[in-house]
Amino acid sequence: MKRIINTLLCSIFVLPVLSCQQELIFDVPVNESIVLDLSSGLTKAAHTDVESYVEHLDIFIFESDNNGKPAALATHETVVVNNQKEIVLEAKRSDFVAGDAYLVYLLANSTADFSGIENFSQLNQMKQEDMNLHLTGLDVSGAPQYFLMDAVAKDSDGNSLVVLNDGVPENNTMLNALLARAAAKVVINIAASERITFVDYGISQGSEGGLFYVRNMPYETWVLAETQKAVNLQNVKLRTTVKTDTEYFTWNPGFESGSKKVSLTTYVYPHHWNDESILEKETCAVINLPMDYKVSDSETVAYHNSWYKIPMTDDATFERNNIYVIDILLDRPGASEESEPITLDALSFSITDWTEVTVDVGNETRPSYLQLNTDHVDMYNVNTDDSSLEFASSSPIKSIVLDRAYFINRMGKEVTVNQGIKATADAGLNGGITIFSPFVKEAGVVNQDSHNNVIRYMTFTVTNEDGLTAQFTVHQYPTIYITHEVGHYSYRDDFGGTTYMQMGNPNYSGASWNNNSKTWTYTQNASNSNFFGSKVSNSYRIVNGKPVLQQPASTSYNESGYSIYYAYWERPRSGGNYVMNDDSNVSVFNNPRMYHIHVTATSNEYIVARPRMEDGYTESTTDNTMLVSPSFMIASQLGGTDLGSQNNSVSVEKAKQHCAQYVEVTYDEAGNPVIYDDWRLPTAAEIEIIISHQYDSQAMVEVLNGGQYYCAINPAATGSGDQKYLKNIPNNNLTSNHVRCIRDAY
What we know:
Immunoglobulin-like; 8-stranded mixed beta sheet; 7 helices
């Protein structure tokens, strides 16, 4: 695919400006004023009176920091241009420090409010929204009249760090800049085959007429191009526009008898939706083209409405200042209902200069296409899905190949699945695709995998006889499925703000409980004498100042490949973060994973419902005993309580307060901390769920490996007093009391 990124060339001579707005002034000496030359690069192509028009400029001049980056704002000026070739500003070079370097940013036609800008960081985060961007230049309510453009000025050597005042009054300061549009242009050309004649059917015949709208149109953008390049374009704001038949849509069979061509010009802001939901993210045009369709030499059928969905690019990306051209040969009628438009495959996609372009609409060959109604299917507690996936194809489906099938096991490893997974397609050019994956155990089915508490991930490729391919993915979920994430370190909210990554005041790392006074005491040196001591995992390393999760190397004695350490946090003399004073390995407690249990259906043993809370604690009532949260996380071994001197000290108040104070920290993919501080005691049924899935499981290791654990209440427990809040762990002869907190996670 051809990729030529066209920039709107505007040669600009720039001198410093003061914050003001003014009209045009001419015949001022160049070395005393700011001169902007906008004469270059303005094309004479169709629409360019709008596309290249500069109505006004916002000029920002920033001081540079020690790294040559823009910092504090030196001055900002808004200058009315009205597409004049030259403008002269009042600011003088002497307004700036001689010899200092500055950075000059230009924004054309912006509607943003820049009144509060004091530094580059603020400008760098500014966005602009244009709800009717697709109709820019038209006399339509809410449509912009001109396009947002930006540039960074450079000196004659191509440097963006520029000296505005060289100390010699008679010298000129001349800077060049290339203005580029923030939007992308899309041109769709449709030619009808000999079977089709467009007809202007009227309302009386139930026709909506020839019109279009844009589905999932990106209508917000960052005002600066360099910001746009650094952000996730999958999160821009999208909207579906209203139906219209503006002059940008040339469908006029009522005036041109036998018209065979349709074109649509529209505009969008940058957007990216690869690996995202097509329905929710894909930007496309939906067009109604009423027609007569020649079925045979003797039969013609009238389609009063004929709806099509047209992809506007073939790589799920729009980049600013590009023009995307789509050429289509139309050889079949569309859908009669707007809600189910027929998806057309373009014969060709191209990206060309944003100038006047004459496009050949393609040849008269049969169009080839292969389209799926979705590229992702979720299967919930079933082995077969025959209703979610449909196809439309220019030729019969030749094959559906399973590219990959795997699950993530309890230690974060990908495990390939090979058993009997397949997909088949109906005969013909349209139909359904059936997916079969023997995931849920069935009577009489042999050789089934035992990993029926994890998500199965599958990828398939569909190929038709024309050689076109399409991919789809499947995620298969059992009734109860378990995922996990790796914790980094733990602490408590009552430790005075001290964490492994920063100093608090006071700085504590251990907590003990006084069963007589029902109060906590704290220490700076966590040890086995504490009920709880802060721990840290060695699973992370610091890269460019950000924590990165390492891939563990499994060992014979430690399947997880990670270790957890007791940590006495102390500040090194050279400053910086806390370090571990005692790095002795913590026995068998080496797994820093927080397991996340998802429960999708009620059973005879539990009821799926979020347990009730009272004063921030899990409610200790019999009615609460059977409740299981539909989605809850278990604190990792970083939150495991110590087997120290308080093993025989029983107090549910201690357990409740500890969970309310407990904090565990992990990191997202960008290296930002994710803090979980909303923990609680589990119900008895939630402990049963954990027990039933922690043995001989691909989904979760043995999490509750102590003798008994606190829960909100356990009516089945024997004994008196606080013993009714303890639940015994089967297959374990230990008598020690432990707390393992959980949290509701949605």
